[in-house]
Design goal:
The complex is a heterodimer. The longest helix of chain A has about 45 residues. In chain A, a hairpin with an 8-residue loop joins strand 1 and strand 2. Chain A is of the alpha+beta class. Helix content of chain A is about 35%, strand content about 25%. Chain B is globular and about 60 Å long. The chains are: A alpha+beta, B mainly alpha.
Chain lengths: ~200, ~200
């Protein structure tokens, strides 16, 4: 086949055809991969809920709440066992992270004490900020069993006058972690109080 | 040029990262660990192979004046396919590479091979060229990743060898430049010695 001449008709024809085939191929791959990608997100969230609510097995009830001055919603997964409130897993986020954003799951018992925290998604610097992840350092352990409503545990890094030991050379990530946990605590507080008022 | 030469020239003699100094952005940005380097390299290899294959088979169909937009559409399609497949089957790797997979679209190695090789050569030769260049890119990215991970975190492919904090600068951006610089110097030295 001889090389096509660069006239208007040929140019429009070949580009249109390439774009059509490309979009068809992309649509196909998108349809094939979508269920698997969505499923992974759901599975990840379910796993995180399980991880932050030790001792709880059962279904959770999801409530979305948007705190004043916040850009995004926080999701509170309320866990009821035998008709009573066991606690809740709060899917929270921070926009103050080193790479701007990460999301956590924070588990609370019915009294508002932190049970566990778990990183859902983050892009912090490997070797520095990624130590917020449980597998990389014990940073997140200091939140366990703490009660953000209690004044003894001030949910801020020590540099800001709080109780939390920041990760060396990753103060921004540590601060962001506190920010996310605080947001979770506030949301959990509001949701559980609202529930109590309704009864 | 023999078929073997076309395939192997990308590995060392015309290694895209260490000799041609192309594709510096992903080479510096994602190589914080060996796994990231390997994943990025293989994703780019797939895109290179497929785009070279398609572009060389369409070279007579695409008029010269619109070849760049046509190449970009073809490359972008394969990049999006890789991105979706990775999100679907390798979610952990896709999370850690993040935006850089999408940025393969503007990786100058891919467009460079399309323009310099695939649009002028036969389909089979172009596939060999894409594969060779891709593997050369993978090799150098993995190498940078291994060195940075070993010095910075005391681990290789996530297996901790030395516990402790490691030399932090190798995890950060300056470490990438240092390692890349030394590797380029090493390749230059070896080439000079050979000549």
């Amino acid at each position: 086949m001889a090389k096509k001449e660069s006239n208007l008709r040929n140019m429009i024809f070949s580009l249109t055809l390439i774009v059509l085939v490309a979009s068809a191929a992309l649509a196909g791959v998108y349809v094939i991969t979508k269920p698997s990608i969505d499923g992974q997100q759901v599975a990840k969230t379910q796993e995180a809920i399980k991880a932050v609510l030790p001792g709880f097995s059962g279904k959770t009830e999801r409530v979305a709440i948007k705190l004043p001055n916040d850009a995004d919603s926080v999701f509170v997964n309320l866990a009821y066992q035998d008709g009573e409130l066991f606690g809740g897993a709060v899917q929270t986020y921070t926009d103050k992270a080193f790479k701007s954003y990460f999301s956590l799951m924070v588990g609370f018992d019915a009294a508002g004490n932190i049970l566990e925290t778990e990183v859902i998604k983050m892009e912090e610097t490997p070797g520095l900020g990624d130590k917020i992840d449980k597998s990389k350092s014990n940073f997140s352990e200091q939140f366990v069993k703490m009660c953000p409503a209690n004044n003894e545990f001030n949910l801020k890094v020590k540099k800001d006058g709080g109780t939390v030991d920041a990760i060396t050379a990753a103060t921004i990530s540590s601060r962001a972690y506190c920010d996310a946990v605080n947001r979770a605590a506030e949301a959990f507080d509001i949701v559980t109080k609202k529930g109590a008022n309704n009864e | 040029m023999s078929k073997v030469r076309i395939l192997t020239k990308g590995l060392l003699k015309e290694n895209p990262t260490l000799v041609l100094i192309l594709g510096m952005c992903p080479s510096l940005a994602v190589t914080t660990s060996a796994m990231n380097g390997l994943g990025m390299g293989l994703a780019t290899t797939f895109v290179l192979l497929m785009s070279n294959l398609l572009i060389s088979s369409l070279k007579n169909f695409i008029p010269d004046s619109v070849r760049i937009p046509a190449f970009i559409v073809i490359i972008a399609t394969f990049v999006s396919i890789v991105d979706l497949l990775m999100q679907s089957y390798l979610p952990a790797l896709s999370d850690s590479l993040g935006l850089f997979i999408k940025l393969i679209v503007v990786n100058c190695i891919v467009l460079g091979r399309a323009e310099a090789f695939a649009s002028k050569n036969s389909v089979f030769d172009s596939m060999l060229d894409g594969l060779g260049m891709g593997l050369g890119f993978t090799l150098s990215l993995t190498l940078i990743g291994i060195i940075r991970e070993l010095l910075g975190s005391g681990a290789i492919f996530g297996h901790t060898l030395i516990s402790g904090d490691g030399i932090l600068i190798f995890v950060l951006a300056p470490g990438a430049f240092i390692v890349l610089g030394f590797l380029i110097a090493l390749v230059r030295y070896l080439q000079r010695k050979k000549n």
